[in-house]
Amino acid sequence: MNQSTQSFKHHLRFHPYFHFFAFPLLMISVIACIVNAAMGGAHTHWVLALLAMAVGLIAPMIRLNALTVQDRLIRLEVALRYATLAGEPFDKIASRLSKRQIIALRFASDAELVDLARKAAAEGTTPKEIKRSIKDWRVDDWRL
Q1: Of 103, 104, 114, which is closest to residue 81 (Cα–Cα)?
Q2: CA 107 → CA 26, 77, 117, distances in Å?
Q3: What is the pTM for the complete model shown?
Q4: What are the CA-CA distances from residue 46 to residues 24, 25, 30, 114 (Å)?
Q5: Rounded Cα gap, residues 20 and 36, in angstroms
Q6: Which whole-number Å values give the CA distances from 11 to 28, 105, 106, in the listed order?
Q7: 126 — pLDDT class (breaks 50, 70, 90)
Q8: For residues 86 and 48, what is the distance between their CA atoms, to the nearest angstrom?
Q9: Above 90 in pLDDT, residue 18?
Q10: What is the rounded CA–CA span in Å between residue 29 and residue 37?
């Protein structure tokens, strides 16, 4: 893993190909196909417009499915780290943590994870507050 620095200010990840090229191009294509079909009215134009809309709906779903799998893996990672560091099952506090809180905890160092997790479970700390509380960030260059 690359050891670049990570902090609250720059922990979000954009996938340039998807966010700045593929998705905008796809949306432009969908709009162009719909406009073309509305102006021309030919059967072929409508078929292309429907196809473009279908692809436009499928593309974000593919991304969301990948992010859902990543979220499940993050939960497993945090659960394993917590159980190893705290010496108790993560299930003791997991029911009191939201998915977003667990995802925020992934950035905490081993020294901070247990205390931050217990505090979040007890006090309902928001994901943003959890991230702001982290002093020593674990770098995650593998996220989507």
Answers
A1: 114
A2: 33, 11, 12
A3: 0.67
A4: 21, 19, 11, 56
A5: 24
A6: 29, 12, 11
A7: very high
A8: 57
A9: no
A10: 12
- Assign 58 to helix, strand or coil: helix
Q: What residue type is assigned to position 10 of the chain?
A: H
Integer angstrom CA distances of residue 2 from 29, 46, 73, 140, 141: 37, 48, 20, 8, 7
- How would you label 6-15 residue by residue, b for 16+ Cβ within 10 Å and e otherwise? eeeeebeeee
What is the pLDDT, as a whole number, of residue 123?
A: 97
DSSP 138: P
- pLDDT exceeds cutoff 80 at 91: yes
**Residue 57, pLDDT score:** 80
Give the DSSP letter of residue 88.
S
- Does an H or E element contain 18, and which? none
Average pLDDT, the chain: 85
